[in-house]
Specification:
single chain, Protein Transport Mog1p, Chain A, 5 helices, 12 strands, globular
Length: 200
């Protein structure tokens, strides 16, 4: 079974040259990854067990703040493969509890910010990619059209485990109601497959 090191996984992470023209490296504003947790459904957090060594990165396509894509990476390296397997099992338990549809009420956030009410649709799939155990959450978030006519977010949340490593990535984009989420899911799959292949 493959054993990974933090230095190796850092050097193997996809970078700007792999993402395309105009992408930039950005400040990580994904609260889950920023705090060392994984992202679950409906903006929830999943706390990984143990004390793995963690690395996070975040990138944005041109116009990423409005309609461009965003991509964030998280890699956790555990001392043993058993600990990593326990971690991905916990992730599976948590995301299996996510409802297919959920109405989320408005919420006042720190800094006098407001999170608007929205409706989330969640779909969970499992597979194996490049020898890694793989879980995917595909989430569609719809805000009221009175807020904006670009009121839909598609978010692909991938979780993968091999040996002593747990990898997760977020790929998300804001679109109009008439836009399909399929191209977003396909791009996320392309990036994930290349990433896991690179890890080996």
């Amino acid at each position: 079974m493959r054993t990974y090191t933090t230095d190796q996984t850092k050097s193997d992470l996809l970078d700007l040259a792999d993402l395309g023209k105009g992408w930039t490296k950005n400040e990580l504003r994904v609260s889950s990854f920023q705090d060392g947790d994984l992202r679950g459904c409906s903006l929830s957090d999943i706390r990984l067990p143990g004390s793995p060594e963690k690395t996070t990165r975040k990138y944005g396509a041109p116009d990423y703040k409005l309609r461009g894509a965003n991509y964030a990476q998280f890699i956790a390296v555990y001392p043993t493969s058993d600990q990593a397997a326990d971690a991905i099992s916990k992730v599976q338990q948590e995301i299996s509890k996510c409802p297919g549809k959920k109405k989320v009420p408005a919420e006042r956030l720190p800094g006098n910010k407001l999170r608007y009410q929205h409706e989330d649709t969640w779909k969970l799939t499992e597979s194996e990619i490049e020898g890694w155990r793989h879980l995917r959450g595909f989430e569609k978030t719809v805000y009221p059209p009175s807020i904006s006519n670009i009121n839909v977010y598609y978010t692909v949340i991938d979780y993968a485990q091999s040996g002593n490593a747990v990898f997760s990535s977020l790929y998300w984009q804001r679109v109009t109601p008439k836009d399909s989420g399929e191209p977003i899911a396909e791009k996320a799959t392309e990036l994930l497959t290349e990433q896991l292949k690179r890890f080996g």
